Amino acid sequence: MKKTLFILFLTLSLSFTLAACDDDDGGGFDAGAWCAETCQKTVECALGPTLDECTAECEEMAANMLSDYVDAYGTCLLDAECAELNADAMMCVESAEPLCTTDTAEYNRAACLKILECDGNTEPTEDELTQCITRQHGDGDMIKCFKPALVQRTIDCIEAAESCSPAPVATCVYDLLGLELGTGSNNQPQ
User: Fold this and answer.
1) The predicted structure's pLDDT at residue 27
2) Who contacts 59 (Cβ-Cβ below 8 Å, separation ≥6)?
3) Cβ atoms of residues 111 and 157 within 8 Å
4) Residue 10 in 3-state DSSP?
5) Measured distance CA(52)–CA(12) in Å, rounded
6) pTM (2 d.p.)
C-alpha cells in the first residue's frame, strides 16, 4: 500500500540532480497536518487509498522528505481542481520534482554493491555496477526527494548489513525513509 501512495505521491524519473545541504530540517514542518490536508484532497478527488491508509503512509515519509519538495507538491495538489488531477495525476509530482536535489549517486552505488553481493557477485565489474544502477534509474529513483542526512544513514545501514535476508536495501530504505521498495528478486529494488 505504501508503494501505491508513493507512486501517486512521488513517481519520479531517475535522474540525478545537484546535491542538497544536509541541514534541511523541515523548518518546523508538521507532517501530520500536511498529510491530513493532502490526503483529504486525494480522497476527495478519488486518487488513492482511504483517508486513514493515506495519512498513515504519508506520515511515515513526509517528515523525511525535502521541505521544498513537500511544500511545492502540497501547494500544487491543494490548488488543483480534481478534474485536472484526474486528467494528469502526475502533474504535481512533475512540477515539484526539480526541487528533489539530493545526490543519490552514493546511495545507488551502495545499493547495487549490496544487491550484487546478495546475488552472489562479490566482485562486480564497473559495467555490472553501471547496469544495476541503470536498472534502478529505469525503475524510478524516489530517493532524491529525501533529506541528505537520512539518505546517508540509509547508505550506512546498507553497507553495514551482514545478511541478505531480509533484503538489506529494501529493509534499510523502509526502516529509515518509510519507503517500501518493490522487488524483482529478493534484493533488487524496482
Assistant:
1) 52
2) 31, 32, 35
3) no
4) helix
5) 24
6) 0.77
Q: Find the DSSP H helices in the chain.
A: 2-10, 31-44, 51-62, 67-79, 82-87, 91-96, 105-118, 126-139, 148-160, 168-177
CB contact at 8 A, 67 and 30: no
Local structure of residue 19 (DSSP, 8 states) = P
The three three-digit cell numbers of residue 97, written as one number:
520534482
What residues contact residue 117 under an 8 Å CB cut-off, 6+ apart? Answer: 164
The domains of the chain are located at: 2-99, 105-177
- Neighbouring CB atoms inside 10 A of 81's CB total 9
- Residue 112, all three cell numbers: 547495487
Q: Give the type of residue at 144.
A: K
The residue written with cell numbers 517500501 in the block is 180
pLDDT by 10-residue block (mean), the chain, 190 residues:
38 28 53 92 91 89 92 96 94 93 94 96 95 77 91 97 94 89 43
Show the 3-state SS of 49-78: CCHHHHHHHHHHHHCCECHHHHHHHHHHHH
